[in-house]
Amino acid sequence: MKWIHLILISSTTFLLTACNLINFAEDVEDIDPPIVSGIEDKTIVIGTTFDPFLDVVSFDLVDGDVTDLLELEGNVNTNEFGTYFLKYIGKDTSGNEIEHVRYITVSVDLKTAENLVINGDFTEGMKNWTTTFVAGSGTANVRVVNEELVIEVQSVFPEWLWAPRIENIGMTFQSGRTYLVSFDARSEEDRSIHVQIGELLPADPWFIDFQPGNFKIHDLTNEMQTFRFTFRMDLDTNLNGAILFELGTVIGSVGIDHLLTTVYIDNIKIIEIG
Q1: Closest C-alpha among 177, 176, 161, 121 to residue 244
Q2: What would be the CATH architecture of the domain defined by 129-272?
Q3: CA–CA distance from 32 to each of 11, 61, 63, 70, 177 (Å)?
Q4: Which residues contact 227 (CB under 8 A, 6 or more apart)?
Q5: Selection from 77, 34, 28 nearest residue 52 by Cα
Q6: How do the domains of the chain map onto residue ranges?
Q7: How far is CA 165 from the centre of its chain?
Q8: Is 2.60.40.10 the CATH classification of the domain at 35-107?
Q9: Does the model's pTM come out above 0.70?
Q10: How, if at all, do strands 57-60 and 64-65 pair?
Q11: Residue-level pLDDT at 12
Q12: Coil, helix or strand at residue 58
């Protein structure tokens, strides 16, 4: 009987203790926000899919999983280069909130991607590069110095945007694909250049533009800059595409005060990204 009595006392004590703990938990005020995980900064390849909620979890010590209460401010355009700002707001049912900032960088690994441009780094001199001049009105002295293209513009004509011109011809552009164009450039004095992607023709209309209506003017300074743009090939597949650097009377934000200057171009790449 003593053992039964002791067991009854122990059971009663346990039940009372458990009830007290439950009551204590119910009486505690929830003042702590949830813990949000999986929101580390990230670099993604341009043209890929990005889900801002993938692997993101919000957990509260009282409510448990509150991922469905997460709010997000900001967005990521995976088709445009840049670093994007996202703000996650974690909430629980008691109204506690916490904010976390995340940066998503849209980029591409240019070192490992296949480059359509032959000799885009000029390690083989002027191989696969040609020039087009107009005598007396669109000429330049073009050479490669220390694996860098040097274009000393000697003359331009007021109405001719394109001459002098430097070309790399013979690339295949697949219909329906998106391409990234990248190059480094500077000039001794501020001036602008025009860059086109398309096919040169021997007769009128002389040129098929692969990005019609997308007029690419780039403003150069005396500091080397990397210029990038993307375009989608919406025409039929073309086996004789070219990149053209036009250094004639190009009017950009830096004006036309220094057209007769020396331009330096290097590291030209065209890669398929989607």
Answers
A1: 161
A2: Sandwich (2.60)
A3: 34, 8, 11, 15, 50
A4: 182, 183, 184, 185, 195, 218
A5: 77
A6: 35-107, 129-272
A7: 28
A8: yes
A9: no
A10: antiparallel
A11: 44
A12: strand
| Token pair recorded at residue 263 | 């331009």
DSSP string, 124-171: TTTTTEEEE-BTTTBEEEEEESSSSEEEEEEE--TT-SS-SEEEEEEE
Spatial distance between the Cα atoms of 70 and 88, rounded to a whole number of angstroms = 7
267 close to 234: Cβ distance less than 8 angstroms: no
- C-alpha 234 chain-centroid distance: 21
Taking the CA atoms of the chain, what radius of gyration do you get in angstroms? Answer: 31
Identity of the amino acid at 100: H
Q: What is the pLDDT of residue 239?
A: 96
Q: Residue 194 is encoded by which pair of tokens?
A: 């025009």
Spell out, as residue ranges, where the chain has pLDDT lower than 70. 1-28, 109-112
In the structure encoding, which two tokens stand for residue 39, read together?
Answer: 């929101």
pLDDT at 8: 38
Q: What is the pLDDT of residue 85?
A: 95
